[in-house]
Amino acid sequence: MNTNIKQAEIDISDQYEKMRGEKVNVSYGDKQALFDVDVSIAANKVTALIGPSGCGKSTFLRCLNRMNDTIDICKVTGTITLDNEDIYAPSVDVVELRARVGMVFQKPNPFPKSIFENVAYGPRIHGLANSKADLEEMVVTSLQKAGLFSEVKDRMNEPGTGLSGGQQQRLCIARAIAVQPDVILMDEPCSALDPIATATIETLIDELREKYTIVIVTHSMQQAARVSQNTAFFHLGELVEFGTTDQIFTAPIDQRTQNYITGRIG
Amino acid sequence: MSLLSIFLIVLCIAIAGHFAGRSKALSSANGKASGLHSLPAYYGTYVLSWALFPPMALMALWLVISPSVISNAITSTFPVEVQSLDPAKTSLIYGTVESIADGLRQLNPDQITEVSKDISLLKPLLAENGIALASDGEAYMVTSALTMISTQNTSRLLLSIFVIGISLLCAFYAYRKIEPRFRARNRVERFMLAGLIAASTIAILTTLGIFASMVTETGRFFSSVPPTEFFFGITWDPRFASAGDTGSAGQFGLIPLLAGTLYIALVAMLVAVPIGLYAAIYMAEYASPTLRSIAKPLLEVLAGIPTIVYGFFALVTVGPFLRDISAQIAGIATGDVANFIQAQSVLTAGLVMGIMLIPFVSSLSDDIITQVPGAMRDGSLGIGATRSETVRRVILPAALPGIVGALLLTASRAIGETMIVVLAAGIAARISINPFEPMTTVTVKIVSQLTGDLEFTSPQTLVAFALGMTLFFLTLGLNVYALYIVRKYREQYE
Ligand SMILES: Nc1ncnc2c1ncn2[C@@H]1O[C@H](COP(=O)(O)OP(=O)(O)OP(=O)(O)O)[C@@H](O)[C@H]1O
Ligand SMILES: [Mg+2]
Q1: Which residue of B has its CA nearest to A180?
Q2: Which residues, in sequence order, are bridge partners of residue B234?
Q3: Span B176-188, mean pLDDT?
């Protein structure tokens, strides 16, 4: 089925492989959403997943931290590894996996709690902080990393839902960072935001890459080009092409990729 | 003319107006609906609304006001010494006159003349026509009854003329206004608005009316029993009020009833809240869609079982079971097989009421929990929280205002419940902290004070209103508190 996938293997082989998907098939009930997808996620890089609506980007992203487990009808086969360990192995603790592979969603979804409590949520449930001061420090560093601290430092006890959309999204990123994950998955993190908030988050993603491996789903070609190093193009549940962002955007091998990035497939 | 026929005539005018309006609109636009401001039917509805609603409003108003006008007019025809009697007696006489009037309507003119001459004929004649009089009646009553008949006839005649006339006038007025640019659609909107406002006004006014009558009756009660005795009295012993013996003193202490009410409600809540809430969490967060689709309707059916059925269950099954099991426990512990739980007890009532409330709690809470956005759940699970952590730390806090509201609603139900208590906890008003003994509640006593052959002006009866008011304020307090909680958390979270 995926005989025609052309991978620019040489270009990414020098990068440490943080996660890897092999022959990933996903179906919702009778409907198959992904067909034999092979993707390699390089450490400390931003990998962008692009493709037309309904092609399975979110589905694949959700496989990477097993969020698909929460959907009853969803069946995943194939292998996905994190640091060369199969995350679908029976011995894997899903909760722990999700702590290592955190997720930020399309619509900002702060909890109905104070800003502080939102960020402290992860450290609290995972028991990461040894003392109150420890916890406070974690919250502050996470907020700083998410570039939100200076804006909210005087209102830590106000509800997180009272922030602007862009601030809420950065709060959600801070919340994910606070758990000290290795990988951060982002599903269209900017689609609900205005251009200025989007620019802030893009800068943030670029900074976060130093410490974290990032996988981002986006509908914006420009965004993929701006923030990512590697890009995977999905079409109708297949991985059509995967390579460095430069290569995908300047010299796509597959005709469908070419059509998509030039705007001919919606 | 009967009210029904007046209504039917007005309805015919309105329907005719509808068709006339519609066709006038169409013909004014040369048969092309596109030349009209609104759809043709709107012009019809406009005429119909005018022809129907103002006359109906007039009719309603007339029917509300005319009885009291007529009754004043009739009372003033009574002899002076009758008019100066106390109001209760006068109204009794007025009632007699009303039934005489009813009876006279069925007699022919000859009989009426006879009756006017010889009052002793009145009672037997009316009895022949199926109307039983309490007294023989007096001459002035027949005169008044005749006046009443003629006044009522005039009133009805005027009503018919006015209502039908206004209907015709309004229909004509609306019909005249129709032309292609006339904004019938927007005018119909106003009638809709007026209708909606009228409906809500009726709802509010009836509530206020009920409240006002409660307040006056309660006031009458407190004029014979001091409020301190009622609110702080610890003995409930109203005695009997036989007719004419209004002065007989009873003791109307609220405390035992209030204590019973709150105690039983508390036990019920202790049973219903944890079980109902956990069931709701399971249903909303864990159960598979198939299980949910079966269990949820089942729970809702349970919530619809009449409380008297739970009452049977308490009386026949739970009460005796608790009594027997307590006897056995006592037998094992002390060797003396004496039941320490009585068949009718606070525990039995609370337990069964709690069972009754479980579906109520779980179904309400389930709706509230499922309303928490899925994004919250994903957000929490997506950074590695377990399901129960997510429920405890994110879902429940987010749903808390709603859940508190649901619980307070449940509490009001527990407080207002009567049938289960009568059957399961008895009707003995006692103060006790022992849940194994019978106690009773405010609602049960309201029922028992109002049933039977009682004089309606005695404190023994009026106390029911004071009890009702107390319950009203209790549940009102609960609701206000619920609102306060909901507000408080809204402010914090949204
Ligand atoms: N919960 C679900 N139940 C059933 N089918 C689903 C579910 N989620 C996704 N699908 C189906 O799987 C396919 C891939 O969906 P997915 O959400 O992964 O697409 P996507 O690439 O993220 O699209 P978009 O860009 O619009 O977000 C779609 O055909 C969709 O209808
Ligand atoms: Mg998607």
Answers
A1: B383
A2: none
A3: 90
Local confidence pLDDT in tens for the 266 residues of chain A = 444 444 444 445 567 889 999 999 999 999 999 999 999 999 999 999 999 999 999 999 999 999 998 888 999 999 999 999 999 999 999 999 999 999 999 889 999 889 999 999 999 999 988 999 999 999 999 999 888 899 998 999 998 888 988 899 999 999 999 999 999 999 999 888 888 888 988 998 999 999 999 999 999 888 999 999 999 999 999 999 999 999 999 999 999 999 998 876 65
CA-CA distance, B128 to B103, in Å (whole number)? 10
Ligand 1 pocket check for A37: Cβ under 6 Å: no
CA B182 to CA B445: how far, in whole Å?
62
Is B205 a member of any domain?
Answer: no
Is residue A49 included in any domain, yes or no?
Answer: yes
For B206-307, list the strands marked E by DSSP. 236-237, 251-252
- Confirm whether B223 is domain-assigned: no
**What is the distance between the alpha carbons of residues B194 and B57, in angstroms, rounded to a whole number?**
11
Q: Range of A105's domain?
A: 14-109+183-261
> Domain range spanning residue B54?
3-182
Distance B70 CA to ligand 1 centre (A): 74
Can you read off the two tokens belonging to residue B311? 């009452």
Residue B204 pLDDT: 95
Question: Shortest Cα distance from B265 to chain A (angstroms)?
Answer: 32
Tell me which amino acid residue B180 is.
P
Residues A118, A175: contact at Cβ < 8 Å?
A: yes
DSSP states of A54-108: TSSHHHHHHHHTTGGGGSTTEEEEEEEEETTEETTSTT--HHHHHHHEEEE-SS-
CA distance B207 to B400: 30
**Which secondary-structure segment (H or E) carries A183?**
strand A183-187
Give one DSSP letter per residue of B334-353, joined into a string.
HS----SS-SS-HHHHHHHH
CA distances from B176 to A36, B28, B49, B400, B401 (A): 75, 12, 14, 59, 56
Among the atoms of ligand 1, which is closest to the Cα of residue A59? 18
**CB atoms B382 and A95 under 8 Å:** no
- Which of these three, B137, B162, B182, is where a domain ends? B182
Residue B274 sits in the same domain as residue B170: no
Candidates B377, B383, B394; nearest CB to A176:
B383
Q: ipTM of this complex > 0.95?
A: no
| The residue to which tokens 């729970």 are assigned | B299
- Please give the tally of structural domains in chain B: 2
Q: Are B460 and B337 found together in one domain?
A: yes
Number of other CB atoms surrounding residue A28 within 10 Å: 14
Residues of B in contact with A111 (CB under 8 A): 376, 379-380, 393-394, 397-398
The answer to whether the CB atoms of A112 and B397 lie below 8 A apart is yes
Does A103 map to a domain?
yes
CA distance A194 to B29: 51
| Burial group, residue B449, by CB count within 10 angstroms (0-12, 13-18, 19+) | buried
Distance CA B94, CA B97 (A): 5
Give residue for tokens 């309660």. Answer: B218
